[in-house]
């Protein structure tokens, strides 16, 4: 573990980051780790679906503009793959911020839509509160 990072507690919430931009993914992972979350990152939609099914995170932060499988499709697949009570909390982290984009994301199964650049305090609050409430609460 790099110096200066906070080691996640054994009971820390697990967060998966699906982002194709290497720098953006790394920055978000480092930020979330600094808040004490257990974090993993992957670079594509298909890899994200497989990682979610295998790791069973509490929340998944998903970029909508993925090259291999859109973030909207990832949300739809994950929503269909999990029982409603067990589905991870889905957070769209995207550059698409129009009202129509937000509506499409929510219709695809996202619980929250955050527009880049994301305020660090906002994403921490969403991830700290959201998974505890459960999806669509």
Explain this structure.
- With 137 residues, the chain is an alpha/beta fold.
- Helix content is 43%, strand content 18%.
- It is globular.
- The N and C termini lie far apart (35 Å).
- 34% of the residues are buried.
Note the total helix count: 5
N- and C-termini, Cα separation: 35 Å
The pLDDT mean sits at 89
Which range best describes the helical content: under 10%, 10-25%, 25-40%, 40-55%, 55-70% or over 70%? 40-55%
Radius of gyration using CA atoms only? 14 Å
* SSE string: EHEHEHEHEH
Biggest sheet statistics: 5 strands, parallel
CATH topology-level name: Rossmann fold
Low-confidence stretches: 1-10
Structural class: alpha/beta
Query: CATH class, please?
Result: Alpha Beta
How big a fraction of the residues is strand? 15-25%
Q: What general form does the structure show?
A: globular
Number of strands: 5
Relevant CATH superfamily: Response regulator
Strand order of the largest sheet: 2-1-3-4-5
User: What is the domain tally?
Assistant: 1
Key phrases:
five-stranded parallel sheet; 5 helices; 137 residues; alpha/beta; single chain; Rossmann fold
Concise account of the structure shown:
43% of the residues lie in helices and 18% in strands. With 137 residues, the chain is an alpha/beta fold.
Topology:
Elements: E1 14-18, H1 22-34, E2 38-42, H2 45-55, E3 59-62, H3 71-81, E4 89-94, H4 99-108, E5 112-115, H5 120-133
Parallel strand pairs: 1-2, 1-3, 3-4, 4-5
Helix pairs in contact: 2-3
């Amino acid at each position: 573990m790099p110096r200066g990072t906070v080691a996640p507690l054994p009971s820390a919430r697990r967060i998966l980051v699906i982002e194709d931009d290497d720098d953006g993914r790394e920055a978000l992972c480092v930020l979330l780790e600094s808040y004490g979350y257990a974090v993993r990152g992957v670079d594509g939609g298909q890899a994200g679906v497989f990682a979610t099914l295998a790791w069973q995170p509490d929340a998944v932060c998903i970029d909508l503009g993925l090259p291999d499988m859109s973030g909207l499709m990832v949300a739809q697949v994950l929503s269909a793959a999990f029982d409603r009570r067990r589905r991870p909390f889905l957070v769209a982290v995207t550059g698409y911020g129009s009202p129509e984009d937000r509506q499409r994301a929510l219709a695809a199964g996202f619980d929250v839509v955050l527009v880049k650049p994301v305020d660090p305090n906002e994403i921490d609050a969403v991830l700290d509160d959201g998974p505890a409430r459960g999806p669509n609460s």
